[in-house]
Amino acid sequence: MTSFEYQEALKNAARGMVRVKNPTRLLKMIVRFIDREVELDQTSILIFDQPKNRYYFVASKGNHRIPVNLIRLDADNPLIQWFLRKEKSNSINKDFLTYKQILRFLNNWTILDSDASLQRRLEEVKEQMELFKASVCVPGFFKGELLGIFLLGHKLDGSDFSIEELSFFQTLANDASMAIKMSQYHEVLMCRNQELEEKIHEVSQLRKKERETYYQIIFSLAREVHTRDAYTYGHLEEVEKLGVMTAQEMGLDLSGRKRDILVAALHLHDVGKIGVPDSILKKEDKLTEDEWLIMRDHALRGAKILEPLDDFEEVAKIVLLHHENYDGLGYPYGLKGEEIPIEARIIAVVDAFHAMVSNRCYRKGCSFDDAIRELERCAGKQFDPQVVQAFIRAVRKRLQPKYEETRGYEPLLPSFEKETSD
Ligand SMILES: [Fe+2]
Q: Which of 52, 117, 180, 219 could serve as a FRET partner for 204 with CA atoms 20 to 30 Å apart?
């Protein structure tokens, strides 16, 4: 290879290194690259395993290749120590080490005399290079840390490595070390990211569980309120059914969350009554002004109960406003017409109808026709007239045969019928 070709090869290798995030894959690529471009009988790379403080062969190619992953060198191996240790003699360059350099050092008494241990160390390194059939070793450093060593065999054409080639390998080894370090950082970052994602998932699961528990509590509270309120079992299911039927009759969009919001509001609209004492809730006579104030507070209290649930924000608003009247004479704010959410206007009609036709402990429910007449009478005042009309159309289509038969209200749900007949 010419000088220009080496520079081009180096540029290409550097570009590849930036792209590769997996260190093992990167080193295998480098070994393949050297094998293809330089033609050696062996090219191998030793890589530092920091947690175990030792080096292992991660990639090897050529006729004399080394079995990777099987051979490991401890940090005190003479070859490793050679590159880690600072030499006393300035004549010893640690950018690379060739087998021929070792032989020259061993015959140079001036160098050997400068350090009593040098001869022994050189002989040990020579042994290691012979063992791995390496003619050149090139260390790769990053910020002073020895991250790997390229072990290069002999050129297939029998020639020696030129200074240009050695300098090319040295640059390649240092660039590769930097890329290895970056990819190790990347791996650590990925691991941390994964740990973080797992933690986030754990927390969100816990929050989900907490939310589910809270939902269960709230729905139990709502059921408890209706039981205490002397409505018969099944009231909530009935209110839900009638409310959804009315919304469908009005052509409202009930796709996805919108239906869930309506259903949740139909179930939970009176959950705030949990704070109203039985003496008021079950009172047969007219409520005093003070009692009435406590009773009216249930809309606000219900919204407060739902406040901690982020995804129940719209439900809480409907619960808060389910006693607003179409003519603006309701509570708590005196909103009127379309200022009141449509779901709240539907609940007002459905709940009133159901309360009128249901049997209570102190009175029998009124007939279907009387209840409808009362709704019509209050349309435009307490109730939205369009909701009343839609409700009547829907309820006639679905329920009237039953009412005509019994002249009283009978719930739709089979489970309720079974429950009451026992
Ligand atoms: Fe209410």
A: 219
